[in-house]
């Protein structure tokens, strides 16, 4: 049951509508059957810059449309007006000052008592900011899509309340699902290699329950059995007041393959160094030891180092200078010049005697060509046998010289004796 107010209490609807159209911030216009403006509110003037006197008698399209207005939109509006039909559409217009703006335009026909269309009224809302934001969003989406396509990276999100997962086109393609589908989490975990699933699921569960940020490198398996490496990132967040897990999925198969090649190359290089009888170390530009070979490690163990890698990270130049002897100072200065590029090669011989034996080494420092930052290779070659042979040879030469001098002295004495004997006989 409805209760109507008495006539005296009813508002004047005509006055109400006039107050509404005059006071609204939306632009309102009224046209005749031919689409010519017969009335407009002040909001129309504020929006377009045209006063009622300037606009009366002109069609809105002739007054406000510009070269950038979509011809199909213009054609559609003309067709509706000709048929006496209403329409709602977004259209680009230009104000009196030249400013371009977007309208959400809602046009409805006016009918006389006989039902015949006598004109139209239009309500116009300025949606320029919304359109600009929409355009920025489209550009950002296009940029993100391009980045995802080029970098082989996609996004994902799990609504923790509804337990519903959503995956970007790129993420679906990486996982082997049809683009723009939203497989559930169980289906996605099923794509990971059987030995990896528990680890990936545990990382997701920890993020879900504890809020941990995670990163997992794992292999996925395609329907034809091909394995590819992917990297999954995730974090817990609040989006619009609802808790979600969101993150990214990246194809890192080539990165992993490259790392395997690098590691194989490093293993080969290390094996090559370890096969050398000389002690070898690699220094950075500051003189810090980055790598050593097996011969160097054995030398360290034999001389009291507690760990095979105890020397890694030590500054070779500083240690050489710390001994306080001229040989160490010369070695430090020579290696520093090579590291700084002021000298191509530094070579020297030096003694390194232990408590039980005499030892000599030959040192050669060279810089890696074309590598930045600088890397210096220092080679220590034992030359003790050579030095001892040189000492023995020197001693032998000395003994030979002594014997020769003695023989020459004996010869001279014998000659003097024979001369003296000859004198006596005569």
Walk me through what this model shows.
With 426 residues, the chain is α+β, with helices and mostly antiparallel strands. 43% of the residues lie in helices and 27% in strands. The protein is built from 14 helices and 15 strands. It has helices at 13-23, 42-48, 52-55, 60-64, 71-83, 128-151, 169-175, 185-189, 197-210, 253-274, 294-302, 316-322, 326-339, 384-425; strands at residues 27-32, 37-40, 87-94, 100-111, 117-126, 153-159, 164-167, 214-221, 227-239, 242-251, 279-283, 289-292, 345-351, 360-367, 376-382. The strands form three sheets. Strands 2-1-5-4-3 form a five-stranded antiparallel β-sheet, with helices on both faces. A hairpin with an 8-residue loop joins strand 13 (345-351) and strand 14 (360-367). Helix 12 runs antiparallel to helix 13 (326-339). The protein is elongated and about 180 Å long. The mean pLDDT is 85.
Task: Write a concise synopsis of the structure shown.
The protein is built from 14 helices and 15 strands.
Outline the secondary-structure elements.
Blueprint: H1 13-23, E1 27-32, E2 37-40, H2 42-48, H3 52-55, H4 60-64, H5 71-83, E3 87-94, E4 100-111, E5 117-126, H6 128-151, E6 153-159, E7 164-167, H7 169-175, H8 185-189, H9 197-210, E8 214-221, E9 227-239, E10 242-251, H10 253-274, E11 279-283, E12 289-292, H11 294-302, H12 316-322, H13 326-339, E13 345-351, E14 360-367, E15 376-382, H14 384-425
Antiparallel strand pairs: 1-2, 1-5, 3-4, 4-5, 6-7, 6-10, 8-9, 9-10, 11-12, 11-15, 13-14, 14-15
Helix pairs in contact: 12-13
